[in-house]
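REQUEST
  id: r-88c1
  op: predict_structure
  target: H-NS histone
  payload:
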Amino acid sequence: MSLLNEYIQKEQQLKQLQEDLQRLEGDQRLKSELEFKAKLEALMNEFGKRAADVIALLDPANDQRSIKPTVSSNANRRKRRLKIYKNPHTGEVIETRGGNHKGLRSWKDEHGDEAVESWLESMED
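RESPONSE
  id: r-88c1
  status: 200
  body:
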């Protein structure tokens, strides 16, 4: 796009925005909202309050939602127990805290879930 075409396009956009702005300025709803905002700000200034104070006063539940937890939700979660499995066929040992261990999964595919669970040697915290 040439610079001249870009200039003409921006000029048209500016004219459209100016028309939209004039139309909004004539809208009674906007005038009412601007008047409300001005009166509310004046009242807040008179009593030394901030917008957050007004929101907390009018919607206490919103104030509680805005407080972010200081500790992540995973911090309260109990650590999984360490499970130690020993394959009686190979003597291989697998230590895992979850059932998604690659070696354990291959044993279960090969020998079955019940058989592998019977190989559980110990559980530790």
